[in-house]
Specification:
The protein is mainly alpha-helical. It is 35% helix and 6% strand.
Amino acid sequence: MSEPTDGMRDGDPFWEALGAPETNTDKIAFKPPFPAYPSGHATFGAACFQIVRLFYKDRNNLSFGDHDCDEIGFSFVSDELDGYSRDLHQAYNAARPIADQPGTIRTRISRSFPSLWHAIFENSLSRIFLGVHWRFDAFRASDALSNPTGNNAKYKDPCRINYDLTAGEMVGGVPLGLSIADQIWAANMSPGPAVAESIAKITPVMASVIPPTPRVESSNTNIR
């Protein structure tokens, strides 16, 4: 599955995506070269937040359903927008403290979320705005949109979104991440036979269709 930027460049070969920002360097923004479907960012993020949700639900005897909205609010400051990291005016010098290197200091931005369920939704959308993924790489339109087949469609309040799948349905992104976390939690924080079997099946397939690429050094902290 091609990324959105591939189609855009058919119309404008010089169009550039915003990309993931290179931090503390003078390099240009980075766009990861991988297939669109499914969104690994949405999958990993959903798995991470779901494990945290299940942990606090169990420890604090909270009453929300495993796939329902919670009330675990939090605030977060990223490494890229912490009021200290910067876009350098020259190449990074490892011999000098970053605070002594000329550059544009990025504004500190603190994001607050009323729930971990909200964070799952926003995390899955973030890669769409970077031009890396389509919406369906993260979830079904019928799950997240108030009017998925008509005009002026709007996203639902994240607390009203349910990502559950019917038996045999193949959807990656958020539903896949939730499923992985549920299985790991049910297996007492170990992969469990179902996850291990899935990994064993997909590893040789991925190796056969994706040729190895040389490792490149990057300071980009957005690459996950």
